[in-house]
Protein backbone atom coordinates (compact mmCIF):
# COMPACT_ATOMS: atom_id res chain seq x y z
CA UNK A 1 0.00 0.00 0.00
CA UNK A 2 1.23 3.54 -0.72
CA UNK A 3 2.47 5.49 2.29
CA UNK A 4 -0.30 7.97 3.23
CA UNK A 5 2.29 10.54 4.21
CA UNK A 6 3.98 10.31 0.82
CA UNK A 7 0.55 10.61 -0.78
CA UNK A 8 0.08 13.71 1.36
CA UNK A 9 3.29 15.21 -0.01
CA UNK A 10 2.04 14.53 -3.53
CA UNK A 11 -1.24 16.30 -2.72
CA UNK A 12 0.66 19.30 -1.33
CA UNK A 13 2.84 19.31 -4.46
CA UNK A 14 -0.20 19.42 -6.76
CA UNK A 15 -1.82 22.14 -4.66
CA UNK A 16 1.14 24.34 -3.71
CA UNK A 17 3.97 23.88 -6.24
CA UNK A 18 2.94 26.83 -8.40
CA UNK A 19 2.52 29.22 -5.48
CA UNK A 20 5.86 28.20 -3.97
CA UNK A 21 7.68 28.76 -7.26
CA UNK A 22 5.94 32.12 -7.74
CA UNK A 23 6.88 33.28 -4.25
CA UNK A 24 10.53 32.31 -4.71
CA UNK A 25 10.75 33.89 -8.15
CA UNK A 26 9.55 37.15 -6.64
CA UNK A 27 11.93 36.75 -3.73
CA UNK A 28 15.09 35.87 -5.69
CA UNK A 29 14.38 37.01 -9.23
CA UNK A 30 15.78 33.73 -10.61
CA UNK A 31 13.53 31.19 -12.28
CA UNK A 32 15.99 28.27 -12.30
CA UNK A 33 16.86 28.81 -8.66
CA UNK A 34 13.19 28.96 -7.66
CA UNK A 35 12.29 25.74 -9.47
CA UNK A 36 15.25 23.80 -8.14
CA UNK A 37 14.78 25.05 -4.56
CA UNK A 38 11.10 24.09 -4.51
CA UNK A 39 11.87 20.66 -5.96
CA UNK A 40 14.58 20.21 -3.31
CA UNK A 41 12.10 21.15 -0.58
CA UNK A 42 9.62 18.54 -1.75
CA UNK A 43 12.41 15.93 -1.86
CA UNK A 44 13.20 16.78 1.77
CA UNK A 45 9.50 16.50 2.62
CA UNK A 46 9.31 13.00 1.13
CA UNK A 47 12.31 11.99 3.26
CA UNK A 48 11.22 13.63 6.53
CA UNK A 49 7.45 13.78 6.76
CA UNK A 50 6.85 10.01 7.02
CA UNK A 51 8.85 9.91 10.28
CA UNK A 52 8.44 13.46 11.62
CA UNK A 53 4.83 13.90 10.56
CA UNK A 54 3.21 16.43 8.25
CA UNK A 55 3.77 19.98 9.55
CA UNK A 56 0.77 22.11 10.58
CA UNK A 57 1.28 24.39 7.57
CA UNK A 58 2.67 22.20 4.77
CA UNK A 59 2.73 25.05 2.23
CA UNK A 60 4.57 27.35 4.63
CA UNK A 61 7.06 24.59 5.43
CA UNK A 62 7.77 24.03 1.73
CA UNK A 63 8.26 27.73 1.00
CA UNK A 64 10.48 28.26 4.05
CA UNK A 65 12.58 25.17 3.31
CA UNK A 66 12.90 26.13 -0.35
CA UNK A 67 13.92 29.67 0.56
CA UNK A 68 16.57 28.38 2.97
CA UNK A 69 17.90 25.95 0.36
CA UNK A 70 18.10 28.75 -2.19
CA UNK A 71 19.94 31.05 0.20
CA UNK A 72 22.41 28.28 1.10
CA UNK A 73 23.10 27.61 -2.56
CA UNK A 74 23.58 31.30 -3.36
CA UNK A 75 25.98 31.75 -0.46
CA UNK A 76 28.07 28.82 -1.65
CA UNK A 77 28.16 30.18 -5.18
CA UNK A 78 28.83 33.77 -4.02
CA UNK A 79 31.87 32.51 -2.08
CA UNK A 80 33.22 31.27 -5.42
CA UNK A 81 32.92 34.80 -6.86
CA UNK A 82 29.69 34.20 -8.74
CA UNK A 83 28.33 37.65 -9.59
CA UNK A 84 24.95 36.15 -10.47
CA UNK A 85 24.64 34.50 -7.04
CA UNK A 86 25.72 37.69 -5.27
CA UNK A 87 23.12 39.68 -7.17
CA UNK A 88 20.39 37.18 -6.30
CA UNK A 89 21.32 37.40 -2.61
CA UNK A 90 21.05 41.18 -2.74
CA UNK A 91 17.67 40.83 -4.49
CA UNK A 92 16.47 38.42 -1.81
CA UNK A 93 17.63 40.64 1.00
CA UNK A 94 16.13 43.82 -0.39
CA UNK A 95 12.93 42.83 -2.17
CA UNK A 96 10.45 45.71 -1.78
CA UNK A 97 6.71 45.18 -1.50
CA UNK A 98 5.57 46.15 -4.96
CA UNK A 99 2.51 48.28 -5.49
CA UNK A 100 0.61 47.73 -8.69
CA UNK A 101 -2.48 46.22 -10.24
CA UNK A 102 -1.50 42.55 -9.70
CA UNK A 103 -1.23 41.35 -6.10
CA UNK A 104 -1.47 37.57 -6.46
CA UNK A 105 1.96 35.95 -6.86
CA UNK A 106 0.80 33.33 -9.34
CA UNK A 107 -1.13 35.75 -11.52
CA UNK A 108 1.78 38.17 -11.35
CA UNK A 109 4.17 35.44 -12.52
CA UNK A 110 1.92 34.68 -15.48
CA UNK A 111 2.07 38.32 -16.55
CA UNK A 112 5.82 38.55 -16.07
CA UNK A 113 6.45 35.35 -18.02
CA UNK A 114 4.34 36.79 -20.82
CA UNK A 115 7.00 39.43 -21.47
CA UNK A 116 7.07 40.68 -25.09
CA UNK A 117 10.79 39.83 -25.36
CA UNK A 118 9.82 36.14 -25.40
CA UNK A 119 8.23 34.42 -28.38
CA UNK A 120 4.48 33.89 -27.84
CA UNK A 121 4.72 30.08 -27.75
CA UNK A 122 7.64 30.26 -25.31
CA UNK A 123 5.64 32.55 -22.98
CA UNK A 124 2.79 30.07 -22.81
CA UNK A 125 5.00 27.00 -22.49
CA UNK A 126 7.17 28.48 -19.75
CA UNK A 127 4.18 29.63 -17.72
CA UNK A 128 2.54 26.23 -18.03
CA UNK A 129 5.74 24.72 -16.68
CA UNK A 130 5.89 27.10 -13.72
CA UNK A 131 2.24 27.74 -12.91
CA UNK A 132 0.60 24.57 -14.17
CA UNK A 133 3.31 22.32 -12.76
CA UNK A 134 3.15 20.39 -16.05
CA UNK A 135 5.96 18.19 -17.28
CA UNK A 136 7.68 18.83 -20.59
CA UNK A 137 5.89 15.90 -22.24
CA UNK A 138 2.45 17.21 -21.23
CA UNK A 139 3.25 20.70 -22.51
CA UNK A 140 4.57 19.24 -25.77
CA UNK A 141 1.26 17.41 -26.27
CA UNK A 142 -0.65 20.65 -25.69
CA UNK A 143 1.40 22.30 -28.47
CA UNK A 144 1.41 19.27 -30.80
CA UNK A 145 5.23 19.19 -30.89
CA UNK A 146 7.78 16.59 -29.83
CA UNK A 147 9.09 16.49 -26.28
CA UNK A 148 12.70 17.36 -27.33
CA UNK A 149 11.40 20.37 -29.28
CA UNK A 150 9.48 21.63 -26.25
CA UNK A 151 12.46 21.02 -23.94
CA UNK A 152 14.59 23.22 -26.21
CA UNK A 153 11.94 25.96 -26.18
CA UNK A 154 11.86 25.97 -22.39
CA UNK A 155 15.65 26.11 -22.13
CA UNK A 156 15.79 28.98 -24.62
CA UNK A 157 13.05 30.89 -22.80
CA UNK A 158 14.85 30.63 -19.46
CA UNK A 159 18.15 31.64 -21.09
CA UNK A 160 16.45 34.64 -22.71
CA UNK A 161 15.13 35.76 -19.33
CA UNK A 162 18.55 35.38 -17.74
CA UNK A 163 20.62 36.92 -20.54
CA UNK A 164 18.26 39.81 -21.29
CA UNK A 165 17.81 40.61 -17.61
CA UNK A 166 14.02 40.48 -17.89
CA UNK A 167 12.76 41.63 -14.48
CA UNK A 168 10.24 39.71 -12.40
CA UNK A 169 8.04 42.57 -11.38
CA UNK A 170 4.47 43.72 -11.58
CA UNK A 171 3.82 45.11 -15.06
CA UNK A 172 2.51 48.64 -15.24
CA UNK A 173 -1.21 48.94 -15.77
CA UNK A 174 -0.61 50.26 -19.28
CA UNK A 175 1.32 47.08 -20.15
CA UNK A 176 -1.41 44.65 -19.10
CA UNK A 177 -3.57 44.66 -22.27
CA UNK A 178 -0.58 43.92 -24.53
CA UNK A 179 0.14 40.75 -22.55
CA UNK A 180 -3.47 39.70 -22.22
CA UNK A 181 -3.68 37.28 -25.14
CA UNK A 182 -0.83 35.10 -23.87
CA UNK A 183 -2.13 35.29 -20.30
CA UNK A 184 -5.58 34.08 -21.39
CA UNK A 185 -3.98 31.25 -23.37
CA UNK A 186 -1.96 30.14 -20.35
CA UNK A 187 -4.93 30.11 -17.99
CA UNK A 188 -7.06 28.20 -20.49
CA UNK A 189 -4.32 25.64 -21.16
CA UNK A 190 -3.99 25.07 -17.41
CA UNK A 191 -7.74 24.53 -17.31
CA UNK A 192 -7.80 22.18 -20.31
CA UNK A 193 -5.01 20.05 -18.83
CA UNK A 194 -7.12 19.77 -15.69
CA UNK A 195 -10.34 19.16 -17.63
CA UNK A 196 -8.80 16.28 -19.60
CA UNK A 197 -5.37 15.32 -18.28
CA UNK A 198 -2.80 14.53 -20.95
CA UNK A 199 -1.62 11.49 -19.00
CA UNK A 200 -2.25 9.54 -15.83
CA UNK A 201 -5.05 7.35 -14.50
CA UNK A 202 -7.74 10.04 -14.07
CA UNK A 203 -9.65 11.95 -16.70
CA UNK A 204 -9.82 15.13 -14.61
CA UNK A 205 -7.27 16.97 -12.48
CA UNK A 206 -9.48 18.98 -10.15
CA UNK A 207 -6.55 20.93 -8.74
CA UNK A 208 -5.63 22.43 -12.10
CA UNK A 209 -9.25 23.22 -12.98
CA UNK A 210 -9.76 24.96 -9.63
CA UNK A 211 -6.52 26.92 -10.00
CA UNK A 212 -7.41 28.07 -13.53
CA UNK A 213 -10.89 29.17 -12.40
CA UNK A 214 -9.32 31.01 -9.43
CA UNK A 215 -6.89 32.81 -11.75
CA UNK A 216 -9.74 33.55 -14.16
CA UNK A 217 -11.76 35.18 -11.39
CA UNK A 218 -8.76 37.27 -10.33
CA UNK A 219 -8.16 38.36 -13.90
CA UNK A 220 -11.84 39.29 -14.32
CA UNK A 221 -11.60 41.47 -11.21
CA UNK A 222 -8.41 43.05 -12.53
CA UNK A 223 -9.74 43.72 -16.05
CA UNK A 224 -13.57 43.87 -15.82
CA UNK A 225 -13.91 45.78 -19.10
CA UNK A 226 -12.14 43.14 -21.23
CA UNK A 227 -14.87 40.92 -22.76
CA UNK A 228 -12.46 38.09 -23.62
CA UNK A 229 -11.50 37.86 -19.94
CA UNK A 230 -15.18 37.56 -19.04
CA UNK A 231 -15.63 35.06 -21.88
CA UNK A 232 -12.80 32.84 -20.67
CA UNK A 233 -14.17 32.78 -17.14
CA UNK A 234 -17.63 31.92 -18.46
CA UNK A 235 -16.21 29.14 -20.64
CA UNK A 236 -14.32 27.55 -17.75
CA UNK A 237 -17.32 27.75 -15.41
CA UNK A 238 -19.65 26.15 -17.97
CA UNK A 239 -17.22 23.32 -18.68
CA UNK A 240 -16.34 22.79 -15.01
CA UNK A 241 -20.04 22.58 -14.17
CA UNK A 242 -20.18 19.13 -15.85
CA UNK A 243 -17.32 17.58 -13.87
CA UNK A 244 -19.47 15.29 -11.69
CA UNK A 245 -21.13 13.75 -14.75
CA UNK A 246 -18.03 13.27 -16.91
CA UNK A 247 -16.94 10.02 -15.27
CA UNK A 248 -18.64 7.08 -13.58
CA UNK A 249 -17.98 6.40 -9.87
CA UNK A 250 -15.28 4.00 -11.08
CA UNK A 251 -13.58 6.72 -13.14
CA UNK A 252 -14.76 5.66 -16.60
CA UNK A 253 -15.25 8.40 -19.18
CA UNK A 254 -18.85 9.38 -20.00
CA UNK A 255 -19.55 11.13 -23.32
CA UNK A 256 -21.44 14.43 -23.26
CA UNK A 257 -24.45 12.81 -24.92
CA UNK A 258 -24.64 10.14 -22.20
CA UNK A 259 -24.08 12.35 -19.15
CA UNK A 260 -26.64 12.60 -16.35
CA UNK A 261 -27.42 16.29 -16.57
CA UNK A 262 -28.95 16.19 -13.13
CA UNK A 263 -25.34 16.01 -11.89
CA UNK A 264 -24.37 19.24 -13.63
CA UNK A 265 -23.67 22.15 -11.28
CA UNK A 266 -26.56 24.51 -12.04
CA UNK A 267 -25.08 27.31 -9.93
CA UNK A 268 -21.94 27.39 -12.09
CA UNK A 269 -24.04 27.12 -15.26
CA UNK A 270 -26.19 30.07 -14.20
CA UNK A 271 -23.09 32.13 -13.41
CA UNK A 272 -21.46 31.20 -16.72
CA UNK A 273 -24.59 31.99 -18.73
CA UNK A 274 -24.95 35.34 -16.98
CA UNK A 275 -21.37 36.17 -17.99
CA UNK A 276 -22.15 35.14 -21.59
CA UNK A 277 -25.13 37.50 -21.63
CA UNK A 278 -22.86 40.25 -20.32
CA UNK A 279 -20.46 39.58 -23.22
CA UNK A 280 -23.30 39.67 -25.76
CA UNK A 281 -24.36 43.10 -24.53
CA UNK A 282 -20.85 44.42 -25.19
CA UNK A 283 -20.96 43.15 -28.79
CA UNK A 284 -17.19 42.70 -29.09
CA UNK A 285 -17.04 38.98 -29.93
CA UNK A 286 -13.86 36.98 -29.48
CA UNK A 287 -12.91 33.28 -29.48
CA UNK A 288 -13.38 32.67 -25.75
CA UNK A 289 -16.73 34.41 -25.73
CA UNK A 290 -17.98 32.34 -28.66
CA UNK A 291 -16.79 29.09 -27.07
CA UNK A 292 -18.57 30.14 -23.87
CA UNK A 293 -21.75 30.81 -25.88
CA UNK A 294 -21.50 27.32 -27.43
CA UNK A 295 -21.31 25.76 -24.00
CA UNK A 296 -24.13 27.96 -22.74
CA UNK A 297 -26.33 26.40 -25.44
CA UNK A 298 -25.37 22.93 -24.16
CA UNK A 299 -26.24 24.11 -20.64
CA UNK A 300 -29.72 25.15 -21.80
CA UNK A 301 -30.59 21.66 -23.11
CA UNK A 302 -32.34 19.44 -20.52
CA UNK A 303 -31.05 16.37 -22.38
CA UNK A 304 -28.84 15.60 -25.36
CA UNK A 305 -31.79 15.21 -27.75
CA UNK A 306 -32.93 18.78 -27.01
CA UNK A 307 -29.58 20.33 -27.98
CA UNK A 308 -29.93 23.19 -30.46
CA UNK A 309 -27.29 21.91 -32.88
CA UNK A 310 -28.06 24.42 -35.68
CA UNK A 311 -27.39 27.29 -33.27
CA UNK A 312 -24.15 25.66 -32.14
CA UNK A 313 -23.13 25.23 -35.79
CA UNK A 314 -23.72 28.95 -36.46
CA UNK A 315 -21.54 29.77 -33.47
CA UNK A 316 -18.80 27.44 -34.73
CA UNK A 317 -18.96 29.13 -38.13
CA UNK A 318 -18.33 32.43 -36.36
CA UNK A 319 -15.55 30.92 -34.26
CA UNK A 320 -13.84 29.38 -37.28
CA UNK A 321 -13.89 32.76 -39.04
CA UNK A 322 -12.11 34.34 -36.05
CA UNK A 323 -9.82 31.39 -35.24
CA UNK A 324 -9.26 29.22 -38.33
CA UNK A 325 -7.41 26.52 -36.41
CA UNK A 326 -7.61 22.80 -37.29
CA UNK A 327 -8.89 21.86 -33.80
CA UNK A 328 -11.73 24.36 -34.16
CA UNK A 329 -12.54 22.85 -37.57
CA UNK A 330 -12.54 19.38 -36.01
CA UNK A 331 -15.00 20.44 -33.32
CA UNK A 332 -17.18 22.09 -35.95
CA UNK A 333 -17.19 18.86 -37.97
CA UNK A 334 -18.56 17.01 -34.92
CA UNK A 335 -21.48 19.46 -34.93
CA UNK A 336 -21.95 19.07 -38.69
CA UNK A 337 -22.41 15.35 -38.06
CA UNK A 338 -25.24 16.13 -35.64
CA UNK A 339 -26.92 18.55 -38.06
CA UNK A 340 -26.32 16.87 -41.43
CA UNK A 341 -25.10 13.37 -40.61
CA UNK A 342 -21.74 11.59 -40.50
CA UNK A 343 -21.36 11.42 -44.28
CA UNK A 344 -21.27 15.22 -44.45
CA UNK A 345 -18.79 15.47 -41.60
CA UNK A 346 -16.25 12.80 -42.56
CA UNK A 347 -14.64 14.64 -45.52
CA UNK A 348 -14.27 17.73 -43.33
CA UNK A 349 -12.41 15.68 -40.72
CA UNK A 350 -10.21 13.81 -43.16
CA UNK A 351 -8.98 17.08 -44.69
CA UNK A 352 -7.49 18.28 -41.39
CA UNK A 353 -3.72 18.13 -40.64
CA UNK A 354 -4.14 16.59 -37.18
CA UNK A 355 -2.56 13.15 -37.45
CA UNK A 356 -0.75 13.55 -34.10
CA UNK A 357 -3.94 14.44 -32.22
CA UNK A 358 -5.77 11.52 -30.65
CA UNK A 359 -9.20 13.17 -30.80
CA UNK A 360 -8.85 13.57 -34.57
CA UNK A 361 -8.62 9.80 -34.90
CA UNK A 362 -11.32 9.22 -32.26
CA UNK A 363 -13.78 11.50 -34.08
CA UNK A 364 -12.94 9.90 -37.42
CA UNK A 365 -13.42 6.43 -35.90
CA UNK A 366 -16.85 7.37 -34.56
CA UNK A 367 -17.97 8.77 -37.91
CA UNK A 368 -16.76 5.65 -39.72
CA UNK A 369 -18.58 3.48 -37.18
CA UNK A 370 -21.80 5.40 -37.75
CA UNK A 371 -21.39 4.91 -41.49
CA UNK A 372 -20.98 1.15 -41.04
CA UNK A 373 -17.31 1.16 -42.12
CA UNK A 374 -16.23 -0.81 -39.08
CA UNK A 375 -12.88 -2.15 -40.29
CA UNK A 376 -11.72 1.41 -41.00
CA UNK A 377 -13.18 2.54 -37.68
CA UNK A 378 -11.15 -0.12 -35.86
CA UNK A 379 -7.94 1.16 -37.44
CA UNK A 380 -8.83 4.73 -36.47
CA UNK A 381 -9.54 3.72 -32.86
CA UNK A 382 -6.15 2.03 -32.72
CA UNK A 383 -4.51 5.23 -34.02
CA UNK A 384 -6.29 7.23 -31.30
CA UNK A 385 -5.14 4.77 -28.64
CA UNK A 386 -1.54 5.15 -29.77
CA UNK A 387 -1.72 8.92 -29.29
CA UNK A 388 -3.10 9.37 -25.78
CA UNK A 389 -1.55 8.55 -22.40
CA UNK A 390 -4.69 9.23 -20.35
CA UNK A 391 -5.92 5.90 -18.98
CA UNK A 392 -9.58 6.94 -18.80
CA UNK A 393 -9.53 7.92 -22.47
CA UNK A 394 -7.65 4.75 -23.39
CA UNK A 395 -10.22 2.57 -21.59
CA UNK A 396 -13.04 4.34 -23.43
CA UNK A 397 -11.33 3.90 -26.80
CA UNK A 398 -10.58 0.23 -26.13
CA UNK A 399 -14.24 -0.39 -25.25
CA UNK A 400 -15.35 1.36 -28.44
CA UNK A 401 -12.91 -0.72 -30.47
CA UNK A 402 -14.13 -3.97 -28.87
CA UNK A 403 -17.77 -3.08 -29.63
CA UNK A 404 -17.07 -3.21 -33.37
CA UNK A 405 -17.95 -6.39 -35.20
CA UNK A 406 -14.45 -6.88 -36.66
From TrEMBL:
InterPro entries reported for this sequence: DUF6596, RNA_pol_sigma-70_dom, RNA_pol_sigma70_r2, RNA_pol_sigma70_r4_t2, RNA_pol_sigma_r2, RNA_pol_sigma_r3/r4-like, WH-like_DNA-bd_sf
UniProt keyword Transcription regulation, yes or no: yes
Domain RNA polymerase sigma-70 region: 13-78
DUF6596 domain sequence ranges: 179-279
Key word Transcription regulation present: yes
Single GO biological process annotation from the record: DNA-templated transcription initiation
MF terms (GO), sorted A to Z: DNA binding; sigma factor activity
Pfam families attached to this UniProt entry: DUF6596, Sigma70_r2, Sigma70_r4_2
Residues annotated as domain RNA polymerase sigma factor 70 region 4 type: 110-161
Keywords: Sigma factor, Transcription, Transcription regulation
Annotated PANTHER family: BLL6612 PROTEIN (PTHR47756:SF2), BLL6612 PROTEIN-RELATED (PTHR47756)
Name of the protein: RNA polymerase sigma-70 factor (ECF subfamily)
Gene source species: Nonomuraea muscovyensis
Lineage, top ranks: Bacteria, Bacillati, Actinomycetota, Actinomycetes, Streptosporangiales
Amino acid sequence: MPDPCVAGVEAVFRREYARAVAVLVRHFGDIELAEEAVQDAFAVAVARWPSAGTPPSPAGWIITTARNRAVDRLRREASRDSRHAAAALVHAGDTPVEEGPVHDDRLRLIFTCCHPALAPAARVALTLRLLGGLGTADIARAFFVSEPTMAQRLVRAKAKIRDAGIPYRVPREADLPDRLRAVLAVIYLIFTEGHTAASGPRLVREDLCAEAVRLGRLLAELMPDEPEVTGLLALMLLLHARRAARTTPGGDLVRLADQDRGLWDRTLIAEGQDLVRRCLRRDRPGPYQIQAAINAVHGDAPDAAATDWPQILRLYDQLLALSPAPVVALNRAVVVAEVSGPAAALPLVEALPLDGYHLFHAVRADLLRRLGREAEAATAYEAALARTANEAERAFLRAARRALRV
